[in-house]
Design a protein that fits this description.
heterodimer; A: mainly alpha; 12 helices; B: mainly alpha; 2 strands
């Protein structure tokens, strides 16, 4: 523990107030989302506690607001603050799983391509290049659409969450693959890898226990920046109505619902989930930027 | 030059091939077109006849070749959802999307490049800091949220601009244009800003960093030593050399403008191809999805090709470099 507090990383973290603040904000977001079922003032999924009388309450500081509902209520009388906390949980979980998925796929492909070289390399990288030609949101939409067409509706509602994770994950792997391949190409010719090869270790083992640990630090940076991107992608898909199922609303779903009430004056139903989304994404982005600079040996 | 063009086209072909294979596979194996077209009552003979008419009993490669042949002629069959030819649907929606995308690209270039030049030249002025902060927010804001905020402010609170649709359009042949009526132009403003904002911030940041990089080089110092006026240095020497990467990125961004048009069109209920596509995804309307995929792929491949050729035309160093076994 002491070693950590003495390290350069901790020093560069402490000396950047923006980073400290965004770390605190991100931590608050994560805890608020994870502990939603414990600390949220209401349970938006408990139909018994919902009262239509309380629908469309403005935030508590407005004239008609109710102090019980700090950020107001939506069309069904759900407390917005609780709905946002539960929604952030879905958004964060989908974003996190999607990043893990694309990291695993991307790192594996990058390692194999970089270490094996030759035809395997050019085939895998060709696929990555082709996919990179298209914006990832388009790829995610297509994957989602194809799965939607391929499985029956009842089945789809059950697996919708996994479909979204898969779609976003698939749309982002080439970035990881390219970076890892680049570093693997450098590592592969170093002496420790040659030594491992000489003593007869299998390629699989060399890749896993020798090359992999040495190519992971850029992956960490990309993964952080990708988390904010994945959260945004999920919100976009859900906003378009093809993301998470309506039974598990994410922040994007909440904004979609609120969008319908923009014209009747109930602005808070769309705006507060929107603010929550921006705060979350911005803090993760700033953390990622800091991590990139902190781990970059050129800038030290 | 000629061999360069040919080699670029040869590289583009596999992309189109893979994409058409994917969209054919969607056509052929996802969902059951026969069941959809036959409806509820049918005999086995009718079914067999339809399978033969559609050519579904032929070998894979024959079917694939036919699919490509039809696709080249713009023939993608009937939409499952609307029961109309897909080509007709897309042609009807294309003008709306193209006009929107052009306006967005225009805004992002005409505002983004000057802002980038300014922030690159006067790095420490308060306006530059303001613009940079603004661009950070622009990157973190999702497109649909920008649209919602603009609608809230300019349509709901101020009531200045319409929030959905294209307004009145004028038909010129098969093209329907919103450029020629006041309501059409008013309807265009908010969606075009929404769509252009992300690209604007990206272009601004790119021009800024390129400008700062170029200003550090020796030939700029030399130009200063020669006593050239600032204006000649900034615009005659520096800006010219920042334009190469800007062309590439702007070209590639045009592609993502078309992709993000899906989101913008949904927010503003803009009757373009993106809205058609998202409705098709929701309804699992495979023919429309396949056609849209093929078309987008063609657009992207063309943009990449044009960008490469422009690169070649703008940067003379590439012409020398290519000659030596690149």
């Amino acid at each position: 523990m002491k070693a950590f507090f003495d390290s350069d990383i901790w020093w560069s973290f402490r000396s950047s107030p923006v980073t400290v603040i965004s770390a605190i904000v991100a931590a608050v977001c994560v805890f608020g989302a994870m502990l939603a079922s414990v600390i949220a003032p209401h349970n938006p999924f408990d139909l018994a506690s919902l009262q239509l009388m309380d629908a469309f309450k403005p935030p508590s500081w407005e004239a008609e607001g109710d102090p019980v509902y700090v950020l107001g209520t939506d069309d069904q009388g759900r407390d917005m603050l609780s709905a946002i906390m539960y929604g952030a949980r879905v958004s964060l979980m989908v974003g996190f799983c999607a990043v893990v998925f694309s990291t695993v796929v991307g790192v594996t492909v990058g390692l194999v391509a970089g270490y094996m070289g030759g035809k395997v390399d050019s085939l895998l990288m060709r696929i990555a290049d082709i996919q990179l030609t298209f914006p990832s949101i388009l790829v995610a939409l297509l994957v989602d659409g194809v799965v939607r067409a391929a499985v029956p509706r009842e089945v789809h509602d059950q697996i919708a969450l996994f479909v979204v994770i898969f779609a976003i994950g698939v749309s982002n792997w080439p970035q990881f693959a390219r970076t890892v391949r680049g570093s693997t190409l450098v590592e592969r010719n170093k002496e420790y890898v040659q030594a491992a090869r000489v003593i007869g270790l299998s390629p699989l083992r060399i890749m896993r226990s020798h090359v992999l640990p040495n190519v992971m630090s850029p992956v960490l940076v990309i993964a952080t920046l990708n988390l904010s991107f994945a959260i945004l992608s999920e919100a976009t898909l859900s906003f378009l109505g093809v993301g998470v199922p309506p039974t598990q609303p994410s922040l994007g779903t909440l904004i979609r619902i609120g969008n319908d009430f923009l014209f009747s004056g109930e602005w808070w139903i769309a705006i507060f989930p929107g603010i929550a989304l921006i705060v979350m994404v911005l803090s993760v982005n700033l953390l990622g930027d800091w991590l990139r600079d902190a781990l970059n040996p050129k800038l030290r | 030059m000629f061999s360069f063009i040919v080699s670029r086209i040869l590289q583009a072909l596999p992309v189109m091939f893979v994409v058409s294979l994917i969209s054919f596979a969607m056509f052929a194996y996802v969902g059951d077109p026969v069941a959809i077209m036959l409806g509820q009552d049918f005999t086995e003979a009718q079914r067999a006849a339809l399978v033969r008419d559609l050519g579904l009993d032929e070998p894979f490669f024959v079917q694939f070749a036919k699919f490509i042949g039809n696709a080249v002629q713009g023939e993608f069959g009937l939409s499952y959802r609307l029961s109309r030819p897909v080509a007709e649907l897309i042609a009807e929606r294309a003008p709306a999307t193209l006009e929107l995308a052009l306006c967005a690209a225009f805004i992002s270039l005409c505002v983004g490049v000057p802002m980038g030049i300014y922030t690159g030249l006067f790095r420490h002025s308060w306006l530059s800091r303001f613009l940079l902060t603004f661009s950070l927010i622009g990157v973190s804001l999702p497109t649909f949220l920008i649209g919602i905020l603009l609608i809230l402010v300019f349509s709901v609170w101020l009531g200045w601009l319409p929030s959905f649709g294209r307004g009145d359009v004028v038909r010129i042949g098969w093209w329907s244009s919103g450029f020629l009526t006041v309501s059409g132009l008013k309807a265009l403003i908010l969606p075009a800003i929404t769509l252009g904002l992300l690209q604007l911030t990206l272009i601004m940041r790119l021009v800024r960093s390129e400008m700062m990089e170029v200003l550090r080089t020796d030939y700029i110092k030399f130009a200063r030593a020669r006593g050239l006026p600032n204006r000649a240095i900034y615009f005659g020497h520096a800006l010219k050399n920042t334009l190469v990467p800007v062309i590439t990125i702007a070209g590639l961004q045009l592609g993502s403008i078309i992709a993000f048009a899906i989101v913008t069109e949904t927010v503003f209920q803009w009757p373009g191809m993106g809205l058609l596509f998202i409705q098709s995804v929701g309804a699992a309307d495979i023919p429309v999805m396949a056609a849209y995929l093929m078309m987008i792929a063609a657009v992207f491949v063309t943009i990449n090709l044009v960008v490469d050729l422009l690169y070649y035309a703008v940067d003379p160093r590439l012409r020398v470099g290519r000659g030596r076994g690149h």
